[in-house]
Amino acid sequence: MSALSITIRSARPADVRAINQLVEPLTHRNILVAKDLVAYYEAVQEFLVAEDEHGELVGCGALHVMWEDLAEVRTLAVAESHRGAGVGHRMLLALLARALQLGLQRVFCLTFEVDFFRRHGFREMSEQVDPEIFNQLLRSADEGVAEFLDLARVKPNTLGNTRMIIDLEDAVIVDRDGVQPDRLRGAPEDLKGA
Hints:
The protein contains 7 helices and 9 strands. By secondary structure, it is α+β, with helices and mostly antiparallel strands. Helix 3 (87-101) links the parallel strand 4 (70-78) and strand 5 (106-111).
């Protein structure tokens, strides 16, 4: 199955159960955090999905805005049958294109797939957040925000994943062979409207 026969689109409430089915196997392996079904319904507007030519969902991912210039890529998952076919690449490009449409400057993730995100221009995070932004984000009840801020209440990191971030102005995508086919701003047109 090629990623070319996949359509990336905004998720709808009717997709939530399929999103949950994509994510569930990864939660059992402690790669993604398990969530109640209601959490997916509440966040459905953040999700994009990858749909094959038969209408089956084979991938999903969410972009969660955290601040005026910052968002998180969350719940990026690809069906086992479609891994290695470029679906995750297209999903991530679409999420980053959406971040650009929203006027965001930075996107971060908490991941075990360090090489995958590094090929897409992400780097491991070490710097702290500006104190003013830190104080505002501190008010959020969202656990993803707490992990981003590296708050003690979410430590030790229960999943053991890596914090990574990308500056969208400087983003250059690198494929598996180390080739830099294009800057993010030159992402394929079908992804820009996702």
